[in-house]
Amino acid sequence: MKITRQKHAKKNMGFYKNNFHFREPFQVLLDGTFCQAALRNKIQIREQLPGYLDGATHLCTTRCVLKELESLGKALYGAKLIAQRFQVRNCSHLKNPVSGSACLLSMIEEGNPHHFFIATQDQDLANKVKKKPGVPLLFIIQNTMVLDKPSPKSLAFVQMLQTNQLVPEHQKQSIVQLKEKEGLTRQESEKRRKRKRAGGPNPLSCLKKKKKTQQSQEPSAEKKKRKRKRNRVKKEVMQSVQKMEEE
Fold this sequence. Notes:
By secondary structure, the chain is α/β, with parallel strands linked by helices. It contains eleven helices and six strands. It has helices at 2-20, 32-40, 45-53, 63-71, 77-83, 100-107, 123-130, 152-162, 169-182, 184-193, 214-246, and strands spanning 26-30, 57-62, 87-89, 116-119, 137-141, 144-147. It is rod-shaped. The N and C termini lie far apart (153 Å). Its main location: nucleus. Residues 169-247 are annotated as: Disordered.
């Protein structure tokens, strides 16, 4: 059973490494419910989690999670002691603390740029995490830690990437910066300016037919006059011959 669980974890880790660029040391954000479940099931998170994820890990939490555990009193005192051992990541709720679940959700906004894992037993928080692509989810079942399989949102996101229909925001920014360094943006703008506009009709096809010049018309008129004169001379000669024969 343990071997099968390790195979599933390795497969899921490969998915996040290849498609969302997760790298060691893995950063795992834990809330109070996960710490409480680990205490109840006698799970040594710091010792067992790196072996399960097959890599170095940084266990961390937020001030809001610690405040929430402190406000709940003796019931979660043990979970609070566990959470206090972890690194504290800065959140945007320094002056106005929020619930632990709301704080963890804010830490994975904008495409989870810091590549956080979320470790929780809160089902409502887990459902919200699954709606965000590229966020691995950890929980405890039957005294063991489990890395959940990639959510449908993560699978759909990767499929869109493979069909070149979507580019992550951080990759868009890096592409723009690289283009600016290489001067490609200026070249592209110049190429756009140099594009040929739609031209008019071919001027050769619009040439008018040449009109006949007066010079070409004049010789034809002279020829007609000559023909008329010849005909008159012939008529006069014929008349004179006829008169002589009659006499």
